[in-house]
Each structure stands twice: as structure tokens, then as C-alpha cells.
From TrEMBL:
InterPro entries: HAD-like_hydrolase (IPR051400), HAD-like_sf (IPR036412), HAD-SF_hydro_IA (IPR006439), HAD_sf (IPR023214), PGP-like_dom2 (IPR023198)
MF term (GO), any: metal ion binding
Magnesium keyword on record: yes
Protein keywords: Hydrolase, Magnesium, Metal-binding
Name this polypeptide is given: HAD family hydrolase
One protein family per Pfam: Hydrolase
Gene Ontology BP annotations: small molecule metabolic process
Cofactor entry: Mg(2+)
Family statement: Belongs to the HAD-like hydrolase superfamily.
Region (Disordered): 219-239
Length: 239
């Protein structure tokens, strides 16, 4: 069978995850430092302790990435009780700063436009909860270019589990050998486990390389049909 669809990683593939996560974490920890009169190094250490505690309790689940749970656990360590209101405010502050920092490179946008022009299905496969990942997609306008966004929350397992890939195949209406996975090098494990062709993204120029390789896999009979227009933008960067 020929190429009919693209499985696309989101975090650290379409944008710089580390830059966004660092800026957002610092913003939230500054608030905690001011409220509790502690230094940044102490706050970072306590946050990491809380993060690891949450991950130990929610291993291989979408909730293991929950910043709300991280901040809730951290405040419980500091205050000896659940501070629901402040936990929610910290999570809101974190994601506002995070999404303000998100920037999708033009090379990635051109790649997605090219895929749509060829009639290829585009399915984002991503860990974390649906609410946060959908907010990221709207804030970055990536939702305009993709057909489906599938999260580990709805698949019931984190990548590289087969369930998330099978759900993508079902939604896209494609067989395994009609799909390729595009993502950062960490996604290779998902490709290997699920017997998928893999094109790594290691920098902005990698998008052009991936496009060139995919072009070789296409024939007029491979694609789903006519090219599809990009959807109208929905929401803004702070949605």
C-alpha cells in the first residue's frame, strides 16, 4: 500500500518544549517563592520532589504530566493541607506562560501545508491530557492543519503503547503500512514497537528533509484524493 497519512508528535517536535516548560515553571515558582518566602533553589527542589511523587503514583498515565497535580503536591508539602484555589491559580499561570512562549517554525507549517495539499491525513499523537493538548493546538493554530488529535488520556496508555497507534489508524481510516511517524528522536521507540516507518525531526531543516523523503513515497494513487484546504483559525494564542 502507498502513503496515506502522517502520525505526528507534538511536544518537542512542532515547537521547543524545554524552552516553554522552563519559562512557565519559573513563572509559577516565583509566585510560590514570594508567597512562602523561600529561595528559588529550594522551590525548584521541592517542585521536583512533588513531580516525582506524582509520577510514581500515576505511572504511564496521562495524569503523570499534570501540572495541577505537581503544584497541588508541592503546596501540600509546604502548607500541610490541600490549597485548592492556589493550586488552580498556579496551573493557570503555568499554562498561560507556556502557551505564550510556544512558536511553531515556518518550516513545520510549510510541511503541514504540503501534507494537506497532497491529501494526506494528519494525526497528532501526544501524551498528556486532552484539555491541555487541545488548548496548545488552538493557541498555536496547529488545529487548522490536522485531522485528528489523539492523546494518551483517551487512548488509555502512553506512547509507545500500541493502543494509541491503533486508535489513530481507526480514526484516520488508514492501515499500518499506509502511515509514517514524524517526530523527535524519542519517538523512535513508538515507531519500532508499532512497526512504523519513522522520519526524525532534529531541527528546523529536518522538516524539508522529511518532506523530500515522503515525496518519494507518493504516487497519484497513494493519496486520499484532492488536496484539502486549511481550516479557518479558531481561537488565539491565549485560548
Amino acid at each position: 500500500m502507498g502513503l496515506r497519512g502522517i502520525l505526528l508528535d507534538f511536544d518537542d517536535t512542532l515547537y521547543d518544549y524545554k524552552e516553554c516548560n522552563s519559562a512557565a515553571t519559573i513563572a509559577a515558582l516565583k509566585s510560590i517563592c514570594q508567597r512562602h518566602s523561600i529561595g528559588m533553589n529550594s522551590a525548584k527542589a521541592l517542585f521536583e520532589k512533588a513531580r516525582m511523587q506524582v509520577k510514581a503514583n500515576t505511572r504511564a498515565q496521562a495524569a503523570s504530566h499534570s501540572r495541577l497535580l505537581y503544584f497541588k503536591a508541592m503546596l501540600e508539602m509546604l502548607e500541610g493541607r490541600t490549597n485548592a484555589g492556589y493550586s488552580l491559580r498556579l496551573e493557570r499561570l503555568f499554562w498561560e506562560k507556556y502557551m505564550q512562549k510556544m512558536t511553531i517554525p515556518s518550516q513545520a507549517i510549510e510541511f503541514l501545508k504540503w501534507c494537506r495539499g497532497k491529501g494526506l491525513r494528519i494525526v497528532i499523537l501526544t501524551n498528556l491530557t486532552a484539555q491541555i493538548q487541545l488548548r496548545k493546538a488552538v493557541a498555536s493554530h496547529i488545529d487548522r492543519f490536522v485531522d485528528f488529535i489523539i492523546t494518551s488520556e483517551e487512548a488509555g496508555a502512553e506512547k509507545p503503547a500500541g493502543s494509541i497507534v491503533r486508535l489513530a489508524m481507526e480514526k484516520a481510516g488508514c492501515k499500518r503500512d499506509e502511515l509514517v511517524l514524524v517526530g523527535d528522536i524519542d519517538e523512535k521507540a513508538t515507531a519500532v514497537k508499532n512497526r512504523l516507518a519513522f522520519f526524525p525531526i532534529k531541527g528546523k531543516e529536518s522538516w524539508n528533509n522529511a518532506r523530500g523523503q515522503l515525496e518519494k513515497m507518493l504516487t497519484p494513487k497513494n493519496v486520499l484524493g484532492k488536496s484539502r484546504k486549511t481550516a479557518s483559525p479558531v481561537g488565539g494564542r491565549n485560548a
